[in-house]
Amino acid sequence: MAALTPGAPAAGSTDPAAAGPPVPPRPRDDFARRAGRAALRAGAVLLRRILVLAALLAVVFAAVEMLPGDAATATAERGDSAAAIAARREHLGLDRPLWERFTDWMTALPTGDLGTSARGEKVADLLRDPFPNTLALAGAAFALTVAASLALGCLAAARPGRRTDRMIGHTATTAFAVPDFVLATGLVLVLSLWTGLLPAVTVADASGKPAEWTMMIMPVLALAVPQTGWNTRIVRGALADQADAAHVEAARLDGLSTTRVLLRHALPGALPVIATGIATSTGMLLGGAVVVETLFNHPGIGTVLAGAVAGRDTTLIAGCVALAGAAITLVLLAADLVRAKTVGAGR
Amino acid sequence: MYVNRRQVLMTAGGLGAATLVGCSSQSGGAPAPQTTGGTPKKGGTLRVGALGRAGAITRDPHGTQSNESDYLVLSLVFDTLTVPAGRPNTAPRLAASWESTPDLKTWRFKIAPGAAFHDGSPVTAADVVWSLRRLRGTKSGASRLPGIQAENITADGDGTVVLVSDYPNAELPLLTRLSSFILKKDTPDNALDKAPGTGPFKLDWYRNGNARLVRNEKWYGGEVLLDAVEITMFETAQAMSNAILAGQIDLASNVGPVAARIAETRKDLRVVRRADDMAMPIVMRTKDGPFADPRVREALRLVVDRDAMVKQVLSGYGTVANDVMGTGDPRYARDLPQRKRDLARAGQLLAEANFDLGKTYDLITTEDIAGLAESATLFANHAREAGIRINVVKQESGTFWDATWLKGTLYTTYWGTNDSVLFLGSKLMVGDAGQNEAQFADPAFDDAYRRAVGAADEAGRAAALVEVQKIQHERSGYLLWGMADGIDVAAAKVQNLPTLAGYGRVQLQSTWLR
């Protein structure tokens, strides 16, 4: 928890102290200047995030290159001669230097061109249906983890050191420690195979979406539960830090109710830490989607990615990573803004 | 054709097995479809799960199909000229009959009367010629229609197609079984996804590997009983297994032994075992090196404990084999003596051949399909009991196919087409075979093979076929210890499922629901 004190993971956040000008000038100028600075700040943060994403994609390209075999051998047919495989390699452009392939792919990216898969399909077409499915899954899991971890964290913080607190603490640690595939398998066994309450896997219909909404429940749970464990601890920790703050202490001494102290006085101060902590969950959620989607046959980019890695399909892998990375970037950006806003407002 | 030589992450051992099954072009050779009784009934929707990967989806009937789900859709919407069967191993489909000239080079296929595309237009020889030429023109066309040049595919009138082979080929109708999907002449590449087929089902919708097909009321091949077939693509056998166990699908195609073991305990599910589905032999290089001496090869064949292999590697879902490839062939030589473990005899042979027992020999394998690497390890244990030191080396798939396959001295391989001794002989064992895995060159074998394929009289061919198998049993480069079953799991209500090996499992045209 110590690592998650405000400021630590917030790459790109700016010093909020500089936000307010010292002398209050005419309101309109002030507003324009504030807006300009906010935009500038957001722009700088965005730029940094984009650079990180680009670096990540470069790593992905290099990592796939390091795996044994390539897309030419992976899509080859038994009996293809070495010459045929070489021809495929040339056709796929795999004979060109890695750097060249990467820059080509990167420069086409801003136009929405995600390149061509090892089998000659447009990557953008391959991901058109899966990406929204993954967003829906990860989004639902995200919403659930935010709501649950705030509730549980506050509940625990309301009675520090008491039984509820300890129980929530232990449960949260356990939940976070369980690997998602173990959890997913357990969920299927209990909620589907033994009790028949929920469908075991996702079956897509003609629209490319899960045929029934109940098919989303278990994948969402499998993703959200470990993250809720993690985030509950963050919320609890941040609130504990705030409990010692002077204004919270004062509110308590004023005789305000525990709930009021917690929600009105402690929580606002804890929000920056919580926002950052929860935002980092996005990465875990989207990463976990590879395993969880595959286990539940959810038609998202996690499933596509699992197959693409097996097929050494660099552009398809990079396409998945780029989309997931973009989604994570947006959430982190939002978290940065929440931080800046709340920390700024606190002054 | 369907080789995507990759192992999927984690749990999906079954998928690897799956992608390989049709790696040449045939399969089949099993008894008639199974029935548990009752009068066939019309109606109902069959929900099928099949393995496939989103990145490998193809809609081209002549494309590289590595997804079982895609192949299932294609083979229900489109027809091939012939289809896999039990006895004989090739049955009519779009071609109602065929005949050859005595030299076995020119083959005439008669198109089934009444055959029509889903849009109502009749199938003509021109459509067939166009489709076969298109198939021949694909990058693997030469291996799908071996020995048949594009210009030697011609029409004779509206109802007959003539194929002329470069060499005598008694097995030619077998070559058209799995990939000769017939489309309408001049179907443009960008319209393949909606191209009308001639098959027992019409495409209702297809999206990202999943599809719904509806009955073709006017199918020339007979009455189709199912109203519809819904196909769901699964990335892993594990997810598919959960789907059948939870009742979300009615048939889990090629789901593998793990699901089967669970299904065995349930009354509402049935395990369909399709014999002779997959061969996983050990290849011993015959040309040179430590296994060039046939006595050494025989010794290795005597060292393996076949029953233990079937029990442990295949979880019992398989049968013991006898070192002859093509166990599903109706004319497979069952009367050859079954080779059994005999360590004393093996030791004697090794001594006679001066085999160096002091050395350690690498056995190279991959994890391409479930059980393959395990088979290598277990064999190495058996060999150790005979004093032969074998070190199992697992190679990454791409490296294996580049560096070891066709070149190595001792390695595992696998074949999903096992219902023709001659087909495998031509592909793997004839001296100039393109995929001569063991570099086997045996004039007596070649001679027997040619007589088996090209002799004018049936009796002569039959005798030669026995000879082909005898030689294999005696001295080929293959140690074929057993055959894996193909395993489907179905809901009890599903009747008349195909029990053919390999891609014979896609023939759902006469399946019905109780």
Keywords, separated by commas or semicolons:
heterodimer; A: 347 residues; mainly alpha; disordered N terminus; B: 514 residues; alpha+beta; eight-stranded mixed sheet; four-stranded antiparallel sheet; 15 helices; 28% helix
Q: Kindly report the average pLDDT value of chain A.
A: 82
Rg over C-alpha atoms of chain A, rounded to the nearest angstrom: 24 Å
Give the overall shape of chain A, derived from the CA principal axes: globular
Distance between termini of chain B?
35 Å
Number of helices of chain B: 15
Spans of chain A of 5+ residues with little confidence (pLDDT < 50)? 1-23
Secondary structure: number of strands of chain A:
0
Indicate the radius of gyration of chain B in whole angstroms: 23 Å
State the end-to-end CA separation of chain A. Answer: 24 Å
- Supply the helix-strand structural class of chain B: alpha+beta
The share of residues in extended strands of chain A comes to under 5%
Total strands of chain B: the figure is: 21
Task: Tell me the overall shape of chain B.
Answer: globular
Derived from helix and strand composition plus strand pairing, the structural class of chain A reads: mainly alpha
**Helix-strand string of chain A:** HHHHHHHHHHHHH
Largest sheet: number of strands, sense, barrel closure of chain A: none
Oligomeric status: heterodimer
In percent, how much strand structure appears in the residues of chain B?
15-25%
The average pLDDT of chain B is: 89
Low-confidence stretches of chain B: 1-32
Greatest chain-chain contact: A-B, 51 and 53 residues
